[in-house]
Amino acid sequence: MKLHRALTIAGTDPTGGAGVMADLKSFQSRHVYGMAVITSVVAQNTKGVTQIAHMDVSMIEAQLQSVYTDIVPEAVKTGMLATAEMMELIGTYIDPKVPYVLDPVMIATSGDRLISDEAVKALQSTLIPKATLITPNRSEAEVLADMKIDTVEALHTAGIRILQELGPQAVIIKGGHIGDEATDYLFTKDTMSMRRSWTSPKYDTVHTHGTGCTFSAVITAELAKGKSVEDAITIGKEYIRLAILHNPGLGTGNGPVNHMAYGDEYSE
Questions:
Q1: Is the pTM of this model over 0.90?
Q2: Number of domain units in the chain
Q3: What residue ranges of the chain have pLDDT lower than 50?
Q4: pLDDT at 177 (0 to 100)
Q5: Could you tell me if residue 190 is inside a domain?
Q6: DSSP label at residue 178
Q7: Which residue range(s) make up the domain with 125?
Q8: I need a labelling partner for 58 at 20 to 30 A (CA). Which of 48, 195, 233, 242 fits?
Q9: Torsions phi, psi of 262, nearest 5?
Q10: Is residue 212 annotated as part of the catalytic site, yes or no?
């Protein structure tokens, strides 16, 4: 049986809820062969981040070489990228013919800021223009669009501004912090407008650690299979809804979601 292949390039989470650990669980649950290049080792849990050690750029390149000279991915996802040097290196491996999902990890669920302003600027100029899809939450979209997002109208303005000024093929802004439901909005470069939205209920839970990583990883897995961006998002949206709804209740802070909840074994 030949498996489709996806690569995540991101930081770690020793408690397994976010970063490459969440990405690999997501790939596996979608029946995609997952590979991982580590950019930063992060000491974090459901309560927050306590320490970060960034990998040497030479070591990141060695990892990338190991992957690309042997098992070439059919889709790529990036998460936490801490420095401009990392981004410049990774950019040389992005093939425009291979779907690339960029999760602009800047702020952890716990509220901890993960990358510097200089790194944000590098992300905007180096990698975002190469992206098939970027997946910011509201806080990240505010940084990328350089504006406050407190209404749906402002979110629409931000989505179009990100397309026009930063140049990705598409951006989906996760609007879970606006309104009574969790609505995500997709904006595409071919139309320079909001293409469609997806809505799911909001659940009264603190167990949302790693939702951004998981959502973007599922989308990456589906793109590796050849799905369209819209179809991949549709699966990702339902996957994350069930993952939150059936969270395992682990940890004493913002607990992780359930990466095994998408399937017939779980019911409403």
A1: yes
A2: 1
A3: none
A4: 67
A5: no
A6: S
A7: 5-131+205-245
A8: 48
A9: -85, 100
A10: yes
Token look-up 């990466």 returns 259
Our CA angle for 36, 168, 98, nearest 5°, is 45
Q: 21: which residues sit within 8 A by CB, 6+ positions away? A: 12, 13, 14
**Residue 211 among the catalytic residues:** yes
In a domain, 200, yes or no: no
- Identify whether 267 is part of a domain: no
Amino acid code (one letter) for 101: V
9 is written with which tokens? 């390039």
Q: Is residue 213 flagged as an active site residue?
A: yes
The active-site residue out of 175, 210, 236, 255 is: 210
Q: Report how far apart, in Å, the C-alpha atoms of 232 and of each of 18, 103, 172, 224, 247 are.
A: 20, 15, 12, 10, 22
Annotated catalytic residue within 8, 34, 78, 213: 213
Distances (CA, A) of 26 to 8, 106, 171, 215: 11, 21, 21, 8
Catalytic residue (one of 15, 46, 132, 211): 211
242 touches 266 (CB < 8 A) = yes
Q: How many residues does the chain have?
A: 268
Three-class DSSP category at 191: coil
Of these residues, 12, 15, 39, 208, which one is catalytic?
A: 208
Specify the DSSP element, H or E, that contains 159.
helix 152-166
Q: Which of 159, 212, 236, 255 is catalytic?
A: 212
Written in H, E and C, the secondary structure of 90-126 is HHCCCCCCCCEEECCCCECCCCCECCCHHHHHHHHHH
**What pLDDT does 193 receive?**
87
Catalytic site includes residue 174:
yes
Would residue 170 count as lying in a domain? Answer: no
Q: Which candidate in 174, 176, 183, 214 is catalytic?
A: 174
The structure tokens listed for 38 are: 């580590």
Domain CATH number, residue 23: 3.40.1190.20
